[in-house]
Amino acid sequence: TRRSWGGVTLARPVPLDLKQWRTRHGLTQHRAADVVGVHERTWRKWENEERRIPRMLTLLVNNQQPQGGEV
User: Fold this and answer.
1) With 13 labelled, which of 38, 44, 48, 70 sits at a CA distance of 20 to 30 A?
2) Which residues fall within 8 angstroms of residue 2, CB to CB, at 6 or more apart?
3) Which residues pair with 20 in a beta bridge?
4) pLDDT > 60? residue 65
5) Contact in structure between 59 and 70 (CB atoms under 8 Å)
6) Contact between 47 and 13 (Cβ < 8 Å)
7) DSSP 54
């Protein structure tokens, strides 16, 4: 599903997108969850397709480096 805000289209990321982003940056599920400000269990459920992934995480997985400081 795609949504558009102010000309920016965001498709909902899929679990593989999150896992690839996390492993590309050498992060554990715990650390990745900390980076985006959620509980590790939430991150794990996103990767395991047990919980819907927020569209806003598209911005995260499409960037090469997480913003806001050191990972």
Assistant:
1) 70
2) 9, 10, 11, 12
3) none
4) no
5) no
6) no
7) P
**Are 53 and 10 within 8 A, CB to CB?**
no
Pick the closest to residue 49 from 10, 9, 18, 3 (CA basis). Answer: 18
Q: Which amino acid is at 50?
A: E
Phi-psi region of 33 (alpha: psi -120 to 50; beta: other; left: phi over 0): alpha
CB 33 within 8 A of CB 40: yes
Please provide the distance, in angstroms rounded to a whole number, between the alpha carbons at the two ends of the chain. 29
Query: 20-30: per-residue pLDDT in tens?
Result: 999 999 999 99
Name the β-bridge partners of 71. none
Backbone CA torsion sign across 41, 53, 65, 17: positive
Tell me the pTM: 0.73
